[in-house]
Amino acid sequence: MTAPNPSTALARVVVDELTRHGLSQFVAAPGSRSAAAVIASASHPDTNLRMSLDERSAAFFALGVGRASGIPSAVICTSGSAVANLMPAVVEAAAAGVPLVLLTCDRPPELHNTGANQTMAQTGFFDRQTRFAADLGPGEDRPETVNMWRTTVDQAVSAAMGSPPGPVQINLVFREPTSPVTDDGRATAEPFQSPLGGEGARPSVSLGFVSIVPELPQDLISDVDARRGVVVCGESSPEAARSLGDHLGWPVLIEARAGGRSDDVVTAYQHLGHREDLIPEMVIRLGAAGVSSSMLRLLGMDIPQVMVDPHGRWLDPMRSAAWSIRADAHSFWRVMSDKLPRATDTTWRDTWLGADSEVRKIIDQVVDGYDHLTSARVARDVAAATPRTLVVGSSLPIRDVDAFSWRTPHQVVSNRGLSGIDGFVSTTLGVATTDPMTVGLCGDLTFLHDNNGLLLEQKPSLTLVVVDNRGGRMFEELPHARHAPQFDRLFTTPHGRDLAILADFHDLEYVLAEAPEDLGEITGTDSIRLIHVPIDPVKDREAREQIKQAVSQV
Ligand SMILES: Cc1ncc(C[n+]2csc(CCOP(=O)(O)OP(=O)(O)O)c2C)c(N)n1
């Protein structure tokens, strides 16, 4: 590899080194300062570059790819305010532990602090939100330069995929010309003579990650042995949670975002908070947990609580944990099952499973009794009809899937790091690069917030189900609904827009779902299918109330 100018050399080396770590999905928004990086990633044989019109959406797309595949995607943007548009996805990636590589393109030092156009301090712009940040460039043609570029990329990928994973920034400083020429009509440059490397397939520094099997504290093992507890599976492995529960004879409560719910685990715990006989003596939590207020109540109980996370993250919003164990869920289960005999008495677990199944039946009866669609039914039926991957928006949809979906596909993704309603469409598109049968479920405001995401090119196929209850109805569940003046205008913010028009504008396959049977077959499109589900908010509130009444008798 050679290059006609230093900026092209820098861009080619960075893109090439990233691909050697397995990064293939690149996304960029148009710009001039980023030209060298965009051209290099469009020209490399091992990349797939998509263009997006909006940097915020582009970054969420990259987040979705990283989330679903575990391999970071690289997002490229031009200098100035474009960089700031990456921030929403960066904070979500930082909070949720999702690998993400930002290639922010910058103007050279001589243009900084001069009032030059589109120029701002970009180095370290993301501050504590990134796991690593470095400047590369402007390209200096010296023998050691290329090695420095490549090993800096290695460091960035190592940090992005480290423990915990997260976002990293490489700020690429480019002097003109940024097209692959020595003279672009405005500026000239000497060709970059030093070899760019790139022989063989390996990166300069290959990365390895070893998961260490933990040694557990003896008092923890004794407590687990002596108590009747529950295993709570948050953002973790439902298989490991099941194995642990089976071994200990404890019920396993699987939050919707863990995926993999089925009849052999507890899924309707949200409706069992009133059952005193089900109060546990101990809780083992796997990964981040606490989508619903009832789960938060359980996690806040004054009983021994163990938090288990592969990165040792402090996931304890109720400040009630007694142990923080840095272990992946499978290793934790293996060590526990080595130390403790398998439980033979299943009475405690059976009581939980019996109550769970009874509550589910009652809710199903109420929900199936309506001839119109309710949010609860949409959540239950969409989750059940999704083959492998479901992406769920913050606000009511994730709470409803948590409360009413007894079966969920293997993978459920939700941006719960910071629970923003932003970037939903783009995150779903990013996730769909790994599964063409992906289904997204969100509210109408969440959908509208990121409809620019639909301007992405080469969109993977997917189904988007939008629960259109005319505004942000989650606020109706909060005290403001009773106490705030002008509640609708200030909180619910109904927009009065017809989503069919937006579907037409974006050339989507539009389906209007008005009756329960319209949600039978939802996947199987080779484009983007928008399933628009209008929900009457008044009737929906009544249905929620009726469900509450019905389960209080169990
Ligand atoms: C970026 C961002 N802005 C604002 C909020 C606050 N917020 C939480 S829920 C919500 C309303 C969402 O409405 P919709 O998507 O229609 O879902 P619904 O509440 O009806 O389920 C808002 C604005 C947020 N979480 N994230």
Compact overview of the structure:
The protein has 554 residues and is an alpha/beta fold. The protein has helices at 6-20, 35-43, 55-69, 81-84, 87-96, 145-160, 218-226, 238-248, 293-299, 329-339, 347-368, 375-385, 396-404, 424-432, 444-449, 480-483, 487-492, 499-505, 537-551, and strands spanning 25-28, 48-51, 74-77, 100-106, 132-136, 167-173, 229-233, 252-254, 282-286, 305-309, 323-326, 389-392, 411-413, 439-443, 462-468, 509-512, 528-534.
Textual characterization of the structure:
The chain is α/β, with parallel strands linked by helices and 554 residues long. The protein folds into three domains: 6-173, Rossmann fold (3-Layer(aba) Sandwich), CATH 3.40.50.970; 218-353, Rossmann fold, CATH 3.40.50; 369-551, Rossmann fold (3-Layer(aba) Sandwich), CATH 3.40.50. It has 19 helices and 17 strands. It has helices at residues 6-20, 35-43, 55-69, 81-84, 87-96, 145-160, 218-226, 238-248, 293-299, 329-339, 347-368, 375-385, 396-404, 424-432, 444-449, 480-483, 487-492, 499-505, 537-551; strands spanning 25-28, 48-51, 74-77, 100-106, 132-136, 167-173, 229-233, 252-254, 282-286, 305-309, 323-326, 389-392, 411-413, 439-443, 462-468, 509-512, 528-534. The strands form three sheets. It has a six-stranded parallel sheet, with helices on both faces. The protein has a six-stranded parallel sheet with strand order 13-12-14-15-17-16, sandwiched between helices. Helix 1 packs across helix 2. The model has no long low-confidence stretch (mean pLDDT 96). The structure holds thiamine diphosphate.
